[in-house]
């Protein structure tokens, strides 16, 4: 059995990576991280330190947003082979090996090279072109929000009525990677602790082959995670106010206002996308421009040590991965 371990970039999932290395055959483990381009720089530093220290050989993926019109101009295909909505575009074994052997940030695919009629190819798979994945290295990681911007360009702004950022930036790239490499012969390991097991959706877990080792294998609490990292030579040095996603719209309004006060430059990317849209990110129906206005008023009492579990990128959606 192949074990795909989802590393979110937080302390809990990093601890899970350590646990998996200690308790599962190394040759059966693959560690993966999905980068959105809007992670805090300290998150990326922590990921690199974990990768080096635990020798994870971490696979980094980013969303590769494909649509029919752009696909006609430039055929991009994800590493190994292209999957969309669980359907594999049929390539021969030789073609599969060819793509697997190429080392590049993206893959040019010319159907005629393989004797495939281009018009037939595009017509047959027009409805299946969606979000796939591309492999990245640390040197080529997007840090300017490019994957997120591409998702917004195709699907619009994510918000409480359309929480598509998790689906398109995390779920789809990781699942397409898993399908490409393992078919259906894998388990996905998710870093949810026993003290937050209420977040586990058993129906989704069964459907998507999720396993929660910090619930079933080694029941783990938040305090256990904190004690572990106190004993380590490094830790996640991100301000708790910000979180891994620098201005997640799932955060409480008070926290986002406080972020604007203390880190005003963080909000500009989010505001620019909102200004170009008829919709807004905010879960409470308040625009970022209004939040900026509120940030200039008297600061409310805000408990900076309160754990804002409302902002969890995978909470009760697909991967249920902890982001703190």
Describe the structure.
The chain contains 13 helices and ten strands. With 324 residues, it is an alpha/beta fold. The chain has one domain (2-230). The strands form three sheets. The chain has a six-stranded mixed beta sheet. Helix 11 (253-262) packs across helix 13. Mean pLDDT is 78; it is low at 68-128, 302-310 and 314-324.
Quick recap:
With 324 residues, the chain is α/β, with parallel strands linked by helices. The protein is 39% helix and 12% strand. 38% of the residues are buried.
What layout of secondary structure does this protein have?
Blueprint lengths: L1 E5 L4 H13 L5 E7 L5 H14 L4 E7 L2 H6 L2 E2 L5 E2 L2 E2 L4 H9 L5 E2 L9 H7 L6 E6 L9 H10 L8 H19 L3 E4 L12 H7 L1 E2 L1 H4 L5 H9 L22 H10 L4 H9 L12 H8 L29
Parallel strand pairs: 1-2, 1-9, 2-3, 9-10
Antiparallel strand pairs: 3-8, 4-7, 5-6
Helix pairs in contact: 6-7, 11-13
Structural class determined from secondary elements: alpha/beta
Count every helix, treating DSSP H or I runs of 4 or more residues as helices: 13
Mean pLDDT: 78
Rounded to an integer in angstroms, the radius of gyration calculated over CA atoms is 20 Å
Proportion of residues in helical segments: 25-40%
Order the strands across the largest sheet as they lie in space. 8-3-2-1-9-10
Give unreliable regions as ranges: 68-128, 302-310, 314-324
Quantity of strands, as a count: 10
> How large is the share of residues in beta strands?
5-15%
SSE string: EHEHEHEEEHEHEHHEHEHHHHH
Number of domains: 1
Shape designation: globular
Taking the sheet with the most strands, its summary is: 6 strands, mixed
Q: How many angstroms separate the termini?
A: 29 Å
